[in-house]
Amino acid sequence: MSEQKKEGVLPAAVIAETKDAMQEVVRSSTEPIISMKKLAAAGVQYGHQMRKWNPKMAKFIYTSDRGIYIVDLKKTVTKIEEAYNKLKEIITNKGTVLFVGTKKQIQSVIKEEALRSGSFYINTRWLGGTLTNFRTILGRIRYLKDLEQQEASGTLDLLAKKEANGLRKIKDKLLKNLEGIKEIRGLPKAVFVVDPTIDHNAVAEARKLNIPVFAITDTNCDPDLVDYPIPGNDDAIGSVRLIVQTIADAIVEAKGGVTVVAYTKDDEFIAKIAALKEATKPQDRSYGPRSDYRSHSSHGSSSSYQSRSYSNSSSTSTSAPTASSTPTAQPVTVTPTPAAAPVVAQPVPVKTAPVAAAEPTVEKKPRAPRKPKIEAKEE
Question: pLDDT of 51-61, one tens digit each?
Answer without folding.
Answer: 999 999 999 99
